[in-house]
Specification:
The structure holds 2 protein chains of 2 kinds. By secondary structure, chain A is an alpha/beta fold. Helix content of chain A is about 40%, strand content about 15%. In chain B, helix 7 packs antiparallel against helix 8 and helix 11 runs antiparallel to helix 12. The chains are: A alpha/beta, B alpha/beta.
């Protein structure tokens, strides 16, 4: 069956986060396959990013910027129940949420049979559940590793909201297995499609190491700087370019100065065109503490960059095979990270070999392959009950 | 239209639960699923229920009926299979249920992988236990999704012989002609093995697909497969295994047969053996006959392949030794295994059982399991109650604690108390001390007491009292439960005086529990006792009574748990205790988190006493107070007294860290002495912490932020250890380690001579082997496995050398008796400094002991077969060992023995490097550290800084 009504629901759809980039990309690809896609944002983003004005799919946002409390109120004790202010704020939240859910319900009611609601984030799932989905199948996604979810409040919320979904999707098979072991029986996995088809490949001769990501603790740029201090001494002339912005920026600049590497580290700010930034580098560095299926790593591999990464999540292992298309080091092991960087900086042939393999390896995430997987899943969910007596 | 899956539900006299099973199929998230109910000649209306279900869901549910009961699962499943129309087939028993997504997950995996057979996780739950979340059946097979082209890629699949948690491609079953055997029980085993063998591809998914509702078998039957009480059941199982053997033989699959045999020994046989003690003598005799015959058909290699204890059990069954086999089958059942057999030492090896004229077969060799060196707290000895008598007003109890191979050494300090423990209230005990006399191979215990003083239960709320023995060997405590030696022991009743009311009873009557232990029940024979008991029972059985009783029990347990928990203690400490005034001149000392009296805190304490300063010292101990100084107050780590002492102390001194959740108040000075310089990366430099989130890192720095003073031995410490732990430079005390003072000054000759005598080292060169630990399972340190053969050392160098093996304090080692003459375990000596002084040479790997020993300027050898692995991947190091090591880095046993054989050559060859090493890492160790620390901390000059 072609031409399904598909709703992709995210917390927000108008900023530059990884999930948002995934949502727009998937909406565009599914539209290309003849589906009628509606991209639903629950709330307007606090830092909206202007995006392609004429998307080939419908984009709807249910609320303005979200002002009520982010999460429902959970009094921890009998004493906390007496908190009148929290109670009132929670009432406010419920009322606003209900209005949004009604808007969503109106959208979903118009869908034809065979439709699907894809919920990309657990917060958005609250609205979907309130709205009711009728005959539509619900697919709930977790765009992070099992370990990362486990360490956050999302773990409990996922257990509340996702078991009732028709399918839960993680980014990698390893994460799906971890959820299945924990008892989530509807879980399967669906990789992210490649975010773009790169025009040019990096020539791998420029003495530049690129690092791309938000400057926050979980992205581990502080460890990148420490490793750089160890590695760059042996390779003068090489530069570390850090693309991105975030709350840790000042602290990181100060750390670079303290380590005496301010001269070889460039803070370039956010990169609007990742492909262009990556094409100028010869090595990609991913020092994250937590990851899902990192888009920046996929982009770097598509550009033919050899990568050095901490083996911090199944998503990283899924993309990179140590010594084949990149170098993986144990998470948090800064000396090993520095040693791997030194190896790549000093060996052009190794860079080229790993880069070639990276381009070939990341091909399995080609949009067509991923879309075929989506189509198979949608077909499986919509196989109907029959009378088998005939 | 063909369904994707046909689920065949078989039912026999199960009208009540059949709708639940069928409902779980109808609720499947996969649409095209049909249900075929096969009623196996039921007589309780199951057939009608099946027809009703079929009528309610026409076209989706069909009901088939067998004319008469087939007595097994084979025929009904075959009947359903013949009628199935789906692309895939699954089987479901009427008392179990499928997970809602079972079909979807299995079919999706089958279509994605093209496998003939897809298997998912089965979870076994006890429906009679509300709230039971169940446990997975062989979860290690189902840890992650997998695809095998053939069973030979993962023969462990043979462990999961259930036919129900699997989804079979129907064409595959038809093409291979697979069906269930109808004339024996355990047809599952045969069917699954055949299916595994025939499948071209097998896929596994970690999702739960099947919930098995398992019930304790009732005496009158219960589910077919759990009726192990009938001997025919065992005969059937053997018959099925013989048929499987035939199938495997026909395929020439000898290796698979070996795997299957190992599974039989590890799993099937153990199931029966563990229930055998409760069977009558006739059953046991015939069981032994059947089993012994089949043991002869096992592959010879199975003794190495199977797990050690099941292999011993099976081997002894083959020899006709039922007692030995039962002891092996029951070993390791509880958390702490119980040693129910004798051990025999022969040619320096340790064997299970008495041997009694048999040759010492390698399968019985348990030397490497370390049972012979394990303390009673790790491997419980068997104990018995041999006498229970009343002599006048007194009660006399006596019994034995078995002690094969003198595991409890002759010079050990042994204490024993007899305890009557309230079964319902953990920790409520009535206890009497017992006297112990040593015999060869066992200990005799004897207790004599006045029952009117001791036996004071409450009455009604505590009807059952278990008998325990609390054994303490060198301060290490173990709780044992005696077994009655014979029936006559349990004939004496003990007088008891309940505290609440005499109506509850007047005597404790001994009884034998189901686990063959001794317990006592509070009863009375008089009419008033019987009436009162009946009244209480009646009241407790009413609905209100039950509810009230349950609430009271829950509240009682809750209060007990909360009051004793560390969380409560920490909260009280942080909010209340730290507001009490500080007691000037008091100090809390702790070493290795209370494990022993050793290390830097010990040497500071001794200096403190020598200097005569009026400091009141409290020492904390974790396990036993044995070995701690008598002139200090002792508190158990984690107790209320411990928290109170910490809250009010003016000084804290320790070498690891006081519990992280405890606040250090401003008026307290915390001297953190630490326990060694760093080779491996520490604290914030450790990858585990480096990769952690902000909150965890902050928790660590909060903990180390409590240190007011931190001892360092060199500038290396300042740059590595202090930085890694996040200690500010102004808090460092560059005075060296007090525990290393004797290494510089030479130590106490009398003490050293005594130790040398105690260890029997006279006339030989002493080699100390002190490696660091390796991480094991579950975050704990793995037991030390020597990376060289100690027997070879004893054979080749034993005449001239003695090796002292000192495992890291987090772990332990077991040495074979053959090496006894030349290799000694010195893990039990808490303080390492005298050992360093005794040693003529040190062999280590990455332990920080190298920094201390270097001060002695004696030969050091680094035995590092895993250098790259350890320093490269695991955690990272602060410097390159090969570059700075003050001795050779060796990787082979031959090289190690050669180096040890000629120690003078070692002394000369590395002298310069050794001195450079000592100068670099022991910069501040000058032999006066203890005195300087005491002066700086307790001397008065430094108090006002905090």
């Amino acid at each position: 069956m072609t031409g399904r009504d598909i709703f992709i629901v995210c917390n927000t759809v108008d900023d530059l986060g990884g999930v948002q980039r995934w949502a727009h990309r998937t909406a565009e690809l599914l539209t290309g396959r003849g589906h009628r896609v509606t991209l639903v944002g629950i709330a307007r983003s606090a830092e909206p990013h202007p995006r392609r004005p004429r998307a080939p799919y419908r984009v709807v946002t249910l609320h303005g910027p979200w002002r009520p409390p982010a999460l429902a109120w959970r009094p921890a004790s009998a004493w906390a129940r007496l908190n009148v202010r929290a109670r009132l704020r929670d009432r406010w939240r419920t009322a606003v949420q209900r209005r949004g859910a009604e808007r969503l319900a109106a959208l979903l009611r118009a869908a034809r049979p065979g439709g699907v609601v894809i919920v990309a984030q657990v917060w958005a799932m609250e609205w979907v559940r309130l709205a009711g989905t009728g005959g539509l199948k619900v697919i709930a996604m977790s765009h992070e590793s099992y370990q990362a979810a486990r360490a956050s409040s999302r773990y409990r919320r996922i257990w509340e909201l996702y078991p009732s979904a028709d399918r839960m999707l993680t980014l990698t098979a390893e994460d799906a297995d971890a959820w299945a072991r924990a008892g989530m029986t509807n879980v399967d996995h669906m990789p992210n499609p490649l975010p773009f088809s790169p025009a040019a490949r990096a020539d791998l001769d420029a003495p530049v190491v690129a690092c791309l990501g938000r400057l926050s603790h979980e992205k581990g740029v502080d460890m990148a700087l420490e490793a750089w201090a160890e590695a760059s001494a042996a390779h003068p002339g090489w530069r570390l370019r850090i693309h991105g912005s975030g709350p840790e920026e000042e602290a990181l600049r100060a750390q670079a100065r303290a380590l005496g590497i301010a001269g070889t580290v460039e803070f370039c700010g956010p990169a609007p065109d990742a492909a262009a930034a990556l094409a100028q580098a010869s090595v990609f560095l991913l020092p994250s503490r937590q990851e899902g299926l990192p888009m920046s790593l996929m982009e770097a591999m598509a550009c033919g960059l050899p990568a050095v990464a901490f083996d911090c999540a199944p998503g990283v292992r899924e993309l990179l095979t140590d010594e084949v298309d990149g170098l993986l080091v144990p998470p948090g092991h800064v000396p090993a990270l520095a040693a791997a960087l030194r190896r790549l900086m000093g060996d052009g042939d190794l860079r080229r070999k790993l880069g070639d393999n990276a381009v070939a390896g990341v091909r399995r995430l080609h949009p067509d392959t991923v879309l075929d997987r989506w189509e198979r899943l949608l077909e499986l969910l919509h196989r109907d009950e029959h009378d088998f007596s005939s | 239209m063909r369904p994707d899956v046909s689920v065949i539900v078989i039912a026999y006299n199960d009208a009540a639960r059949l709708p639940r099973a069928v409902g779980s199929v109808l609720a499947q998230s996969l649409g095209p699923v049909e249900t075929i109910i096969v009623d196996d000649g039921s007589t309780d209306g199951t057939g009608e229920v099946a027809e009703q279900l079929a009528a309610a869901h026409p076209g989706r549910v069909r009901a088939l009926h067998l004319p008469r009961n087939s007595g097994g699962c084979g025929r009904p499943r075959n009947t359903g299979l013949a009628q199935a129309r789906g692309a895939h087939v699954m089987f479901l028993d009427s008392d179990d249920v499928l997970d809602r997504h079972a079909c979807l997950n299995l079919v999706a995996a089958a279509e994605e992988t093209g496998a003939d057979l897809v298997s998912g996780r089965c979870v076994r739950t006890r429906p009679d236990r509300p709230g039971d979340r169940g446990h997975a059946w062989y979860p290690w097979l189902y840890a992650r999704r997998a695809v095998y082209e053939s069973i030979t890629q993962n023969p462990d699949l043979l462990y999961d012989t259930l036919s129900t948690n699997k989804c079979y491609r129907r064409d595959f079953l038809t093409a291979c002609g697979l069906s269930f055997a109808e004339d024996v029980h355990y047809e599952d085993l045969l069917f699954s093995t055949q299916a595994y063998l025939a499948a071209r591809r097998i896929a596994l998914i970690p999702h739960r697909v099947y919930t098995w509702h398992w019930q304790q078998p009732r005496p009158d039957g219960g589910s077919i497969s759990s009726r192990r009480a009938e001997l025919r059941n065992f005969a059937d199982r053997l018959e099925v295994h013989r048929r499987i053997d035939a199938v495997l033989r026909a395929r020439g699959a000898a290796d698979l047969k070996l795997h299957k045999d190992a599974k039989f020994v590890n799993h099937d046989l153990l199931l029966y053996l563990r229930e055998l003690r409760g069977r009558d003598a006739d059953y046991q005799r015939r069981f032994l006959e059947l089993a012994a015959a089949y043991m002869a058909e096992l592959d010879e290699r199975v003794w190495q392949k199977a797990n050690p204890m099941p292999a011993i059990a099976a081997f002894l069954l083959g020899r006709g030794d039922l007692e030995g086999a039962l002891a092996a089958a029951e070993y390791g059942r509880g958390r702490v295994p119980e040693l129910l057999t004798e051990l025999t030492e022969r040619h320096g090896r340790v064997y299970w059982g008495r041997l009694e004229g048999h040759p010492a077969h390698p399968v019985l060799d348990v030397t490497d399991l370390g049972i012979h060196t394990a303390p009673p707290s790790r491997v419980r000895p068997v104990c018995t109650l041999t006498r229970l008598r009343r002599c006048g007003p007194l009660v006399l109890m006596a019994g034995r604690v078995h002690n094969p191979l003198e595991r409890i050494p002759p010079d050990a300090e042994v204490q024993l108390t007899v305890e009557f423990a309230d079964r319902r209230r953990k920790g409520r005990v009535l206890s009497v001390p017992a006297e112990v006399t040593r015999r060869k191979g066992w200990l005799q215990w004897r207790a004599c007491f006045l029952p009117s003083r001791v036996l004071r239960p409450w009455g009604f709320i505590d009807p059952v009292w278990d008998l325990w023995l609390r054994l303490s060997v060198n301060g290490e405590r173990t709780a044992l439960r005696p077994r009655p030696a014979d029936e006559t022991v349990l004939e004496t009743e003990l007088p008891a005086r309940p505290r609440l009311t005499r109506l509850a009873g007047d005597r404790l009557v001994p009884l034998r529990t189901r686990q063959d232990r001794v317990a006592f029940r509070l009863t009375g024979r008089r009419l008033r006792h019987r009436l009162a008991r009946r009244a209480v029972r009646w009241a407790a059985a009413t609905r209100a009574g039950r509810r009230l009783w349950r609430r009271i029990r829950a509240a009682e347990q809750d209060v007990r748990r909360r009051l004793g928990s560390q969380k409560t203690k920490q909260a009280v400490y942080n909010r209340l205790l730290v507001r009490l005034p500080i007691r000037k001149g008091t100090a809390v000392f702790e070493s290795r988190m209370g494990a022993c009296y050793a290390g830097n805190p010990r040497y500071i304490y001794e200096e403190l006493r020598r200097s005569g300063r009026p400091i009141r010292v409290v020492w904390s101990y974790a396990g036993s107070p044995r070995g701690f100084p008598r002139d200090a107050r002792l508190v158990r780590r984690g107790s209320w007294a411990y928290h109170l002492a910490l809250a009010r102390a003016e000084f804290w001194v320790d070498d690891h860290g006081f519990p992280g959740g405890l606040r250090k108040r401003r008026g307290t000075t915390y001297l953190q002495t630490w326990h060694g310089s760093a080779f491996k990366r520490m604290g914030l430099d450790h990858p585990e912490l480096k990769r952690a989130g902000r909150a965890e890192q902050a928790r660590f720095t909060r903990m180390t932020g409590r240190f007011d003073r931190f001892l360092v031995r060199s500038r290396h410490d300042v740059d590595t250890l202090a930085r890694g732990l996040g200690v500010a430079p102004d808090r460092l005390l560059p005075v060296g380690y007090p525990r290393n003072d004797p290494l510089v000054n030479g130590g106490d000759p009398a003490e050293l001579a005594a130790l040398r005598r105690a260890l029997g080292l006279a006339g030989r060169q002493v080699v100390l082997y002190a490696p660091t630990f390796r991480p094991g399972r579950g975050g704990k340190a793995a037991p030390l496995r020597l990376p060289f053969d100690p027997v070879r050392f004893a054979r080749e160098l034993g005449d001239t050398h003695v090796m002292l093996v000192r495992p890291h304090y987090l772990t332990r080692v077991s040495l074979p008796p053959e090496a006894k003459a030349a290799v000694r375990d010195v893990g039990h000596i808490p303080d390492v400094t005298p050992l360093l002084l005794l040693a003529d040479a040190l062999v280590t790997d990455y332990s920080s002991i190298m920094f201390d020993y270097a001060l002695l300027d004696r030969p050091m050898i680094f035995y590092v077969p895993d250098l790259e692995e350890y320093t490269g991947r695991d955690r990272g190091c602060y410097f390159d060992l090969a570059e700075h090591a003050p001795g050779p880095l060796l990787r082979e046993e031959d090289a190690l023995l050669a180096a040890l054989a000629d120690l003078p050559a070692q002394r000369d060859a590395h002298a310069a490097r050794r001195r450079a090493f000592a100068a670099r890492f022991g910069e501040y160790d000058r032999g006066d550290a203890a005195a300087r620390v005491v002066e700086l901390i307790f001397g008065g000059g430094d108090r006002d800084r905090t």
